[in-house]
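can u do me a favor
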């Protein structure tokens, strides 16, 4: 079974920024996300971005004054982050997020784990381990921001087919296959090159985590909303 890292390296990393509407649009979206929540440094100013990808979250955080450690398993996406970060204080680390404390040993004011990064872990036990480490890595009064899609209710029939994005040179369609603990994500990409359409395909699994389970896990560790 392809892992998330293998799937990104094989297919997704090459179209990731485009998939989210292009670099500028995605950066603006997360800039607004942090703006609307008043996220700004007021403590040690260290931030850790778990599953940083190409920097949609790390760069807005650095522009707010955070010193960011951006960790991701996909070195292609981190190279894209490096190209866009300019003079911002961002250190990129190509590594498993479960080992993040080895690469960012000091406590942090803010830790983010966004998009579907939590779902890329291979089990609920791994999620619990990560949450434990995040809680231990935060300075007193620190903040953890996590986002993910709740796949606890299975899509059915034609609702399992998703048109991700299409333009004159790329067509990206996704098919979801629901299993008891995971959702099997099939990504299908047509790319137009030199007048012909080339086809690429790959799949991987994401965890089916319910919002209630994640909130319960966070509270059990000691987080408060």
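np, heres the sequence
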């Amino acid at each position: 079974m392809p892992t998330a890292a293998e799937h990104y390296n094989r297919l997704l990393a090459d179209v990731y920024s485009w998939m989210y509407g292009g670099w500028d649009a995605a950066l603006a979206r997360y800039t607004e996300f942090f703006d609307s929540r008043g996220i700004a440094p007021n403590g040690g100013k260290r931030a850790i971005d778990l599953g940083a990808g190409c920097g949609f979250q790390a760069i807005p955080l650095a522009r707010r004054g955070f010193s960011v450690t951006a960790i991701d398993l996909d070195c292609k996406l981190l190279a894209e982050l490096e190209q866009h970060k300019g003079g911002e204080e961002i250190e990129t680390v190509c590594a498993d997020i479960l080992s993040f404390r080895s690469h960012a040993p000091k406590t942090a004011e803010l830790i983010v784990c966004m998009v579907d990064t939590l779902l890329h872990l291979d089990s609920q036990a791994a999620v619990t381990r990560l949450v434990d480490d995040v809680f231990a890595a935060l300075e007193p009064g620190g903040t953890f921001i996590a986002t993910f899609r709740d796949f606890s209710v299975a899509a059915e029939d034609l609702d399992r087919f998703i048109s991700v994005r299409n333009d004159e040179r790329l067509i990206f369609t996704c098919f979801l296959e629901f299993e008891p603990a995971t959702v099997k994500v099939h990504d299908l990409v047509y790319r137009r090159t030199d007048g012909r359409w080339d086809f690429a395909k790959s799949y991987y699994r994401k965890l089916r985590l319910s919002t209630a389970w994640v909130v319960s896990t966070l509270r059990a560790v000691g987080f408060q909303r």
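The chain is about 30% helix and 30% strand. hope that helps!!
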